[in-house]
Amino acid sequence: MSDDDQTLPADVLPDADLDGHTFDELAEYLDRGRTPRDPDIESSAACRLALSNMQRLRELSVDAMQRRADADPDRENAWIDGLLTTIRAEITSGRDVPVSHPDPRLRLVLTEAAVRNLIRRAGDSTGGIVMGRCTLTGDVSTPGTPITVDLTAAIAYGQVAEQTADRLRRRVVDVLTRHTELVIEQIDVRFDDVYVP
């Protein structure tokens, strides 16, 4: 896969309104190295999240995807399509996740998309996995309500699944405890693929 092949295919990601921008515009902006800086794009949380996910997909494209595509092109297309579907689903803001503030006149919230992005970054920095889907199950908008976090990921060949899942759970609990007030009842981890690091 060459550098020219890293642009996301237009037929896979349809135009989507992201604060007035489309995936094609964001892909071109990313191709330019986010220069010159576009304040309209950079000030949009939805655009920044889409750019972050697109960059992550491109980074995967450079190495792991090339090896996997050479080995099994049909399987690789399905894997890319799955990641793109996840990106489309996860850039929507979703529900509001309240954050308390000492001043009762202020209402602070994180979007569900922002929480998923926190989880994704925690997972990607765990080592030995590539994050897939992240779903928050339960009433995240009511403080104190227990929720379940459902995660999928690809695991590096040679990693022990149980230990890797435990490390991922600890990282997710840590990041959610630091940045949110969500009550985590359970974190379900499912490894749905294996990759060669």
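Second entry:
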Amino acid sequence: MGLFVFLPLVLPLTAWPVARLAEQHLHPRTATRLLTAVAAVMALCSTVCLGLVMVVGTAQLPGNPLPDGWSDPEVRAAVPFDEVAGKAAIPALCAVVVTCARALWRHGRVRRRAHEALAGLPGTSVAVLPDDVPYAYALPGGRRDRVVVTTALLERLEPAERRALFAHERAHLTGRHHRFLLAVRLAALANPFLRPLRTAVAYTAERWADEEAARVTGSRRAVATAIGKAALVSRGTPVATLAGLAAPGPVPRRVAALLGPAPVARRRPSVFTSVGLAAWAAAAGTAASVMSSANATVTMFLIFRAAF
């Protein structure tokens, strides 16, 4: 394995350039899917290699459950031994597992409570709450997807702006944006170097919904006005909502993008552009991360097999 086992822990740095450039130059749908895929793969690889470092580094600690054959000199020569890194990997891996499990548990709890709070309302796709606090969000639930909005917010919007608001929230549900947001959230918890990708996806998911709303309503200006008004009057939801779905994001940038021309959807950026080079660099980093973790895992399996 050598020092290559540590590569997946730092290779997420190669994705930083594409995180920023994808926001600016790729279609929001493409950017969201690309950045989420890169973040998920890199987080998985770094977690696997963190576990391998822990096993290898702590092999000679008293009371370890590894077989006696592990102490064979030939076996020792085949793996890197770093007791300090191995010990440090134990709390690091525990922290990753605990924080990710807590995030998943909280996600499920918020989702259940949100549906329970709407249990007494008619089972329509739009739930209008008689509340003096203006806010709106999309609540996924499989066959029970719903758009939640308060009367206070509806009263502040014109009819065209209301249609834009509903189209925006429905786009979140149709695109299953909560899955992308949850995936990058877990990835950032697994490896802090992936936080820029989480921030980027939070923005591109909102832009994706903005563009879908503009397509459905046929008015980019109406969507921009609805976003601006909602951001000015909203104070945030009084209870926790699913990851990022009630967050307005960087509103000035979203409004400016809507007042400009619609982005062009491309399957892949040209390699001769800055975003293309950044995307290929991120792809190369992801591929290297996969190969490093796969090589380390196979090596560990063969060593375990020989040690038994």
